[in-house]
Amino acid sequence: MRKAIRRLLLSFLVITMALCTGGCWNRKEVNTIMIVLGVGIDRLSDNRVEVTVQLYNSTTSGPGGNSGNQGEGSGGGKIQSSTGQTMVISASGTTTYDAVNHLQRKLSRTLFWGHSKTIIFGEQAAKKGIKMDMDFFLRFSQTRERTRVLVGKGTARSYLEARPLVEATSALGIMVLVEQQYGIDRNLKDLAEGLLGESHAVALPLLHFEGGVNGREDIKSLQGCALIHNGFMKSTLDTEKTRGMLWAENHSRWIKMPVSVGEGEFVNLQPLRSTAGFEPSIEKGVWKLEVEIRAELVVLQNASALTLDDPHVIKRVERDANKLIIRDVEKTMSDLQELNVDALQVAQMFHRKYPKEFNKVQKQWDKVFPTIKITAKAECRIARTGMYTNT
Amino acid sequence: MNRGTLSTVQLMVMMYFTIVTTAILVVPANTAAAAGTDMWFSPLWALPSGLLSFYAAYRTHCYFPGLTPVQYFPKIMGKFMGKLVGIPYLLILFFMCSLVAREYSEFITGPFLDQTPILVVTGTVMAVCAYAIYKGPVVLGRMSLLFIFPFVGLLLLAVILLYPVMEPRNALPMLEFGIMPSIRASYVAQGWLAEFAFVSNFLPMLPTNSKPLKPMVGSILMVIITLIVVNTLSLFLFSVLNKELNFPFLVALRFISYANFFEHLEAAGMVIWVSTLIVKLSVFYYIVVTNVSDWFGMKDYRPLIVPLGGIVLVTSIFMVPNQETLARVLATAVPFLFLVFFLAVPTLVWWFVALRSRLSSKKAAPS
Known about the structure:
Order of helices and strands of chain B: HHHHHHHHHHEEHHHH
Oligomer: heterodimer
Largest sheet of chain A: 10 strands, mixed
Number of strands of chain A: 14
Order of helices and strands of chain A: HEEEEHEEHHEHHHEEEHEEEHHHHE
Distance between the termini of chain B: 39 Å
Strand content of chain B: under 5%
Number of helices of chain A: 12
Structural class of chain A: alpha/beta
Strand content of chain A: 25-35%
């Protein structure tokens, strides 16, 4: 009798446990959520925040939904689908939170932010300050610190709506652009570290549109960077002026290096890898920073009369390449100093080496930074000249 | 009632979990706030308080083999005083057990199960712990050995996978404001290390001829090393952000990303952490239950499991109104209470007992 009761109880326990293992408490199935792929933040003319999200559209996936009605019409003008797989939807509010709330209320499914790859700030949003928006994304438990952060010329919304040339969605396409090292690479953690760190400044990669290819009207490219100081975008640097920053951050893979060796004659080099070193020093009250770039290069095209099979010639090209790198780096640094945005965290470098001296000037870093003597040094090595010596 | 036996290795790992499980949540952020770039070696200063609180408990135990503190207090200071001193102990144990339960529920409901009612989150884990201690402390020892490998594996995995994104430069400048900030910052870690005094509740369960001294010192060192690893990881990853992060180690885990698909590792980390938390909460729960039953002189502690668990559960929900208050309490009052009740008082008790036995042996010698 006791044994029978015991068995009955045990089997009851097993059944209840089996029922619980389904994990049905607060279950979230794929068809009850909307996966956010990319987020855009814009400031409208009346100072309202507009949040645009690119969503993975699980209902219309497959070949049937691939028509993708770009532009006008569908769903009251604010809802547009950029391809069959994704849809772009935006809402505005007084704050990010408010806008996200309005956005959520438009949808029958819960937004899921855990897979968001990019956060794009529109130009106006960046100018009017991104600190409050940053707070939302850092505080919110679903967004991740790895999420790429960028600034887009024009509106952020236009980038999420754009049709990528290659990738399936524009949010993914932008992430891949960043990973290609066309420009600088910043995530949410970098942004927060920059703005909360010694310099209160950070550079964010800058997106802009370039003309269409193959009937796809918009492709995006990663050009230059936006300089953020105390949360406000102060200025932008174009591709050429950003190059120094790419050298400083070892993102040299696609830096253009046409070394001029005569009238209209170039030896075209491609960086294989590079490393940057920073040597801050304070001598007799003069603050100095030496940036040293070491790079390994290969020759991609010899558009000159030089014969590259001669080590002396290679030496000469290397010297000229050094000058090119030095020019890039010094140009960027002097621009940063002129704009007084310490986006390369020079403050941190001095803090690490000269804590006492730095702490004295920490409050007036804005006055100190432009006066620092920044010099660049480069040492590059042409590793290979290609399959043929002379052609 | 015979409560079973533990091996020294089981005790060692069990005590390791008892300290480290919540310490890796609480210590990095609090150390970063006070020590800044020196946070990585700051837990080292907690070593003496860990060693002392263990040694005091151990030496006192040697005078009263087979007895737990609540049982030997009456022998030291007389029945009435002993029982009286026991009361604040029981209260503080209740408080701490509820605190652990609350830390668990905050960690689970904050970043993970944000919709689930706190009662369900804490209630389920309390039920598991209740069953574990119903089966006896031997289960806790076995569980510890079971979970140590996944836990250490998780730490190592995190270090290896995050290695490429670590910035050792973040540790500079070292000793910017001298040695004091790092010592001051170790306050929270000191409090947590003082929990090693809990070993006195388990020492009676070791085999009579065992030598727990070396393994327990090893356990203390393991805790310090773990804290240093976690603090270093947080510092190298998040530099200035550490003091703003509520759970740096969790964020570190979710920072892992390889090839855009090997990511979202924090769920696996959470599973392993919860299993170690079950050990920690069970240890606290067991200590509460056995101390209360010893105080009343009961033969069996098991009838107390459910009622006392209910009190702990309810206390854990009402003890603090929100996460911020909990964080503040953990950073200010709790280490102080730990240091008073598990470092200062046990040390005084040890000195008193040692002095008394020396005096009595001197008295005994001439006669």
